[in-house]
Amino acid sequence: MNQKDRDLLIEAAVTAFRERDAEGRIRFSPAWRDLPPQDREALFEAQLAARRVERAVDPEGLSTTSRAVLARLPWLGQIEGNDS
Fold first, then answer.
1. What pTM value is reported for the model?
2. Residue 43: CB atoms within 10 Å
């Protein structure tokens, strides 16, 4: 696998949806299996950086996609007292 393919795989893994277990812990991502061990460190570091950015943008941890979806729900504004 060349470096470009590794970089694309790492990017896909960083941005992939990750399910959580009953305690709220992020479950193991199958994308990790697609990477050789030496690239898993790069993936881990990229995921940490992405999480820091997400927390800086929204302390509740909602992504911009989540915010966009929630903004489209008409009943949400009524519940929260918003005019949206």
1. 0.54
2. 21
Q: Which domain holds residue 58?
A: 3-80
Q: How far apart are CA 79 and CA 17, in angstroms?
A: 27
φ, ψ at 24 (rounded to 5°) = 90, 5
Contact 59, 52 (CB under 8 A): no
Q: Give the number of other CB atoms < 10 A from CB of residue 75.
A: 7
Closest by CA position to 54, among listed 82, 8, 46, 42: 46
pLDDT per position as a tens digit, 61-76: 677 777 788 888 877 6
